[in-house]
Amino acid sequence: MPLRIDKKGTEESSQNEKAKSRLVLRVCLVILFLAILHIGSEQTGLKGFRGNALFPASTSSALVWKSSSSSSSSSSQQKEVILDLVDDEQEYIKWLVEEREKVSNVTEIKTPIKVLYRAMAGLGHQLLRLSSAYHLLTIYQIPLIWPTANPVCGGTIFTIYEHLIGKGPLFVDLPYLKEKNSYHMEIIALPLRFPKLEFVNETELSEEERQELVRGINLNNEIPGYSHAVGDVWDMDLPRFQEMDFYNKFQTDYQMYHQLMLLFEHKHRTKINEIHEKTRFSSHTVFALHIRTGNGETGDFEKKSRGIKNLEQWTETVIELLCDYRERNSPLFDKKPLMIFVGTDTGSIVPKLQNISSTLCQIPIVSADQAYPEEGKSVSFLQKYDNDEKCLQGWENMFMDMYFFTKANTVVTGSYSSFTQAAPMSFVMHRAKKNGMLNDNSHPHLFCELNRYGNRMDCFQDFENWLRRNAVKYFGNMSSPEQRIRQELPFPNWRIKSISINKLFAKTLLREPADSKKPSSSSTNRMTFQEWMALNEIATTNNTKNNMKKKKNA
Ligand SMILES: *[C@@H]1O[C@H](CO)[C@@H](O)[C@H](O)[C@H]1NC(C)=O
Ligand SMILES: *[C@@H]1O[C@H](CO)[C@@H](O)[C@H](O)[C@H]1NC(C)=O
Ligand SMILES: *[C@@H]1O[C@H](CO)[C@@H](O)[C@H](O)[C@H]1NC(C)=O
Ligand SMILES: *[C@@H]1O[C@H](CO)[C@@H](O)[C@H](O)[C@H]1NC(C)=O
Ligand SMILES: *[C@@H]1O[C@H](CO)[C@@H](O)[C@H](O)[C@H]1NC(C)=O
């Protein structure tokens, strides 16, 4: 995804310059703050090969966990812990299924705009972009989205998603969730360069405009205005995103993934129950381990060099690491022993892992026991299946893995992949909000990354620290390099040269209100970022000064 930074001296970029210089100051402060924190964490001494116990056996684990999480820079700890979206998931599923039947039954378009999202490439890639589309629709208040895919499994554009989650759209607006419905959550301001748009009354359009009116939008692959984090540029924008609470992106993501998983569960319940029972999933502390080797795949995969070079060596080192981890954190696995659920594109790796584990420390290793393709043929969107049934089965298997990843205690990613950064990460970070409250000796929820030698694991419990590469826990050989993972999680990204959201909605009922140039005073929900900055300039400057005083006094 090419990102260009506008270096031209346009009016806009000179505004950006001002914003940037303010930001640089803030970034410096944050770096200073993090540096202080870092010195603090250095004292725990993690040099050389030394398994670092999460919790020393001598102390109560809950206590240690609480004190360690309060020293993290996250502000989310202070916020009230958000309980799950619904009390009764089965009742919610029932509601979802019934409502979907109603809306997909209607042939005539009832909503002013019908949005179809056409997904491409692998499952992780698809869902991460679908999450952007979902977020865009909460911003502009479009209540439904129809996920589609290219007809790779024969059939129509709807075939894959109908097979996975049944017929019908996803709900962007979920009245069932009441005050937890992210569709109605206030956003502090629109992302920078996102236009302010409002629905107009159709009767007020001219005859000509009415004839040109567009009611259907096809979003293909990338979503205008959205992109993942990119190195230094991202670092500079991060404070701004924090200030904006990430435009509620984490909330809308979770709302979408949670819905997707429940719809999948509803449709594939028998198979899910079978796997649950066979693996004795719920009587274990499950670490979901994702291993993507590429399995003979070339092209995009090879370019990003995501494959693991020496698989044999790597798997052995990883099992050693996990054996050691379990040993040093044994009180946390007393009630529910550790089990590893493997999600992979290379089926043959599962018996290899099992074999190593049985010689080293007997951690049970399970998988969804899928019909993996033959060795050397990857589970990939590029794969040619000889029939549509098998093709759909391939997608179902990938989704099944993802489903069980969302049920795991901790997600461990073996190499860079958008798979783990979609639903699994959203779920584990959501659960991790409760880590500070765990007082039953259970293992905290973590998102962990193994490095390419398999001898070091860096773990995160919130998005902000993950984006900053500021791990809350590490384990293994700290002289070994950490995983240089690509952060694929998308956000509104004002540095994309062409935002083109205006173009996307051109000729629909969503239009720029006539008075959009004036700063809005009433509806903060639809204020643009520039307006918000203008209103907050004084307050922001004061805060910065105060923070600086605090730092000096400290
Ligand atoms: C609409 O859904 C109902 C069930 O709620 C079903 O009985 C009916 O046949 C559907 N109508 C169409 C046109 O599919
Ligand atoms: C649109 O405007 C017409 C006439 O001005 C009015 O009757 C109608 O209720 C309006 N529709 C909505 C959805 O506001
Ligand atoms: C398990 O490992 C042993 C020793 O490394 C090897 O001899 C045996 O063939 C392996 N078994 C399987 C099923 O891979
Ligand atoms: C730890 O990692 C470093 C760097 O990869 C390596 O040189 C060293 O041998 C490792 N130590 C152990 C005990 O494996
Ligand atoms: C900012 O600080 C100045 C003086 O330091 C003060 O006069 C002003 O009222 C403050 N503004 C706000 C919004 O707090």
UniProtKB/TrEMBL annotation:
Keywords: Membrane, Transmembrane, Transmembrane helix. The chain crosses the membrane at residues 23-40. The keyword Membrane applies. This is Uncharacterized protein. It comes from Cylindrotheca closterium. The lineage of its organism: Eukaryota, Sar, Stramenopiles, Ochrophyta, Bacillariophyta.
